[in-house]
Amino acid sequence: MPDTFPSVPTDALAEGGWCERERRRTREFDAAVVTVDAATVVYEDRTLRDRVVEETELDRLWRFFVASRLTVSPATGPSRALTGLVADRAHAGFAETLTERGFEGVRRVDPEAVESTEAALGDDSRVAGYDALCRLDAVGVRARGWAAVRPVDGAYLLVGGAYPTAVRSAPDERTDDALAEAFDPEGFREELFSLMRATE
What we know:
The longest helix is centred in the middle third of the chain and has 21 residues, at 80-100. A 7-stranded antiparallel beta sheet has the order 1-2-3-7-6-5-4, with helices on both faces. The chain has helices at 10-15, 46-56, 80-100, 111-121, 173-182, 185-198; strands spanning 18-30, 35-45, 64-73, 103-108, 126-136, 139-152, 155-169. Helix 2 runs antiparallel to helix 5 (173-182). The protein is α+β, with helices and mostly antiparallel strands. It is elongated, with a radius of gyration of 17 Å. InterPro entries: DUF6517.
């Protein structure tokens, strides 16, 4: 298993109200010729969660950031074929992570949105975007997730996260308004991309 976790922008995370939620080492997959192990750290936007609880009493994970260092064995330099394999498997794993964290109806976004995100990240990352739905009691919230994989220091880095984008349904106007005021999809997107770019 890899020993090195990704280097994340801890100051920016702390200033933004993020809290470390999970740190783990796993075997991501074992293909015919290579195995890929991951050292992963997950952060949650605790400030957003606390605000929503205070204003609506709805308590769940709304927004997270994840970074994984993916180590390939036997050690080999990145190639187009290997990068494609690692990215495909990592993206599939990220979609499963969304489901495990309570996001429903996970599906890929259209290619144009992916292209604009690749341009925003400004590197050679392989990017996948996902739309999903968060449900809690009578509340439904649309969400967007992003995952990017890029070669780094003889290994690969997966960075990504998810955030709410709009209220789909709410039991009353007060809840609808409180959630709408708490959610800033453009700001969430920009902060996520900033964290993704700053992770090594």
